[in-house]
């Protein structure tokens, strides 16, 4: 009756306790069914108790299962039917998704893959066309450069005996600058990308561009070294005609612009070399003339001619503006070249005037030479002392004459007494009284 009412003597709370320990429970049964003084310990009674409890639980489970069999079977059937219904619905949706994916793959994915293949082919073709255009442009510019270099040399070859067209030097320099700019655009998507990997372009650089640039640079530097406008030098012969003066200015202008286009640093270096050559020659010739005063007048006339050439060169530089598109110098002393080609040279020399720089530099180098000459003594030293006034007047006349512009060129007009005083002081100041 107790079982029918769902009651049981078994303490289910003990077994359902999360802290339940089988070892502790067995120990408590043994202690409850035995006295501490019993020897040996009786294990049959606690074991029977445990077996009876198990049988009781099994009977209880069987009773519950028998009484609830129909509801359990009904619930299980309902769950199985619901699962089967859901499975059929899911399979239908999966079939629709599979069909849709296959149609999508056929109509979109396959067409996309085909279109992507076409895109890749078109991109490669476009890259090929772009490279071909760049190569064609480089070759065209190279052919143009060869023609211009032939004009520079005189209608073919580099024979300097033939008539030359110095104006073609500037055109050649611009062409070189254009090719150089094209080859420098080697970034991704730029016109010159991949050109460095083309063997034909490498051959063009080695066989045309580099030799042409070297030839232009050497020609321009030689023209600057040979620049002369003064007719004061005794060896100059008859004075140059107006046409000859204009031709000299035109040739020098082409040389100056060529170096400016190729590299402004080359221009400044060539002009500084021209000034150094004039200073070195003048210093050596004056030193020799002071040791032999019979040649002083002729020597000072040559020095005046060199200074007049420097005045003429400065006037020419002052009238020439940097050509558009030419590279600019990056050094600090050349950053201010904005007006004409004279400004960067003056900045590099740290002076305001080329004649002033010439006379002051010459005086600076001449003073120790005169002191050395006087320290040696002899006839030359005595002659210098006795003819001090003549030397003084000759040097002054040399400075004033050399600081004037040659005919046909508008030079700087003004007093040069300070430069004359510096030159006189460098010589007469070392002679003593």
What does this 3D model show about the protein?
By secondary structure, this protein is mostly helical. The protein has 14 helices and no strands. Helix 8 (264-291) packs antiparallel against helix 9 (296-319). The longest helix has 85 residues, at 69-153. The chain starts with 11 loop residues before the first helix and ends in a 5-residue tail after the last helix.
Distance between the termini: 158 Å
Largest sheet descriptor: none
Mean pLDDT: 84
Classify the beta-strand content into a percent band. under 5%
Low-confidence stretches: 1-5, 330-337, 408-413
Q: Please, how many helices?
A: 14
Give the helix level as a range of percent.
Answer: over 70%
Order of helices and strands: HHHHHHHHHHHHHH
Rg, nearest Å:
54 Å
| Overall geometry | elongated
The count of strands amounts to 0
């Amino acid at each position: 009756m107790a079982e029918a009412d769902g009651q049981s003597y078994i303490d289910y709370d003990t077994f359902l306790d999360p802290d339940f320990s089988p070892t502790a429970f067995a120990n408590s049964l043994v202690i409850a069914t035995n006295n501490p003084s019993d020897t040996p310990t009786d294990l049959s009674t606690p074991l029977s108790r445990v077996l009876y409890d198990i049988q009781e639980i099994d009977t209880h489970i069987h009773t519950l299962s028998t009484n609830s069999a129909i509801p359990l079977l009904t619930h299980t059937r309902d769950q199985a039917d619901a699962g089967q219904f859901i499975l059929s619905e899911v399979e239908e949706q999966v079939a629709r998704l599979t069909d849709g994916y296959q149609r999508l793959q056929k109509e979109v994915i396959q067409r996309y893959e085909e279109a992507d293949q076409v895109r890749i082919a078109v991109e490669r073709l476009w890259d090929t066309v772009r490279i071909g255009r760049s190569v064609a442009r480089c070759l065209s510019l190279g052919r143009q450069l060869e023609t211009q270099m032939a004009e520079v040399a005189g209608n073919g070859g580099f024979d300097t005996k033939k008539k030359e067209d110095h104006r073609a030097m500037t055109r050649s320099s611009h062409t070189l600058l254009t090719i150089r700019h094209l080859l420098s655009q080697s970034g991704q998507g730029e016109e010159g990308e991949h050109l460095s990997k083309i063997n034909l372009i490498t051959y063009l650089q080695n066989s045309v561009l580099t030799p042409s640039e070297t030839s232009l640079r050497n020609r321009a530097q030689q023209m600057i070294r040979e620049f002369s406008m003064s007719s004061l030098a005794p060896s100059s012969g008859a004075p140059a005609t107006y046409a000859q003066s204009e031709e000299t200015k035109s040739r020098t202008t082409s040389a100056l612009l060529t170096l400016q286009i190729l590299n402004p640093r080359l221009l400044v270096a060539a002009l500084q070399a021209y000034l150094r050559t004039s200073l070195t020659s003048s210093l050596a010739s004056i030193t020799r003339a002071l040791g032999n005063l019979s040649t002083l007048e002729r020597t000072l006339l040559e020095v005046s001619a060199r200074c007049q050439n420097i005045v003429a060169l400065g006037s020419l530089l002052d009238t020439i503006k940097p050509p558009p598109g030419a590279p600019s110098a990056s050094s600090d002393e050349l950053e201010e070249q904005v007006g004409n080609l004279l400004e960067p040279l003056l900045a590099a020399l740290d002076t305001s005037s080329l004649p002033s720089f010439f006379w002051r530099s010459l005086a600076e180098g001449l003073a120790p030479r005169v002191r050395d000459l006087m320290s040696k003594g002899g006839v030359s030293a005595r002659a210098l002392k006795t003819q001090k006034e003549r030397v003084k007047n000759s040097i002054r006349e040399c400075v004033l004459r050399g600081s004037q512009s040659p005919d046909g060129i508008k030079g700087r007009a003004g007093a040069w007494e300070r430069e004359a005083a510096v030159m006189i002081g460098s010589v007469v100041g070392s002679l003593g009284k």
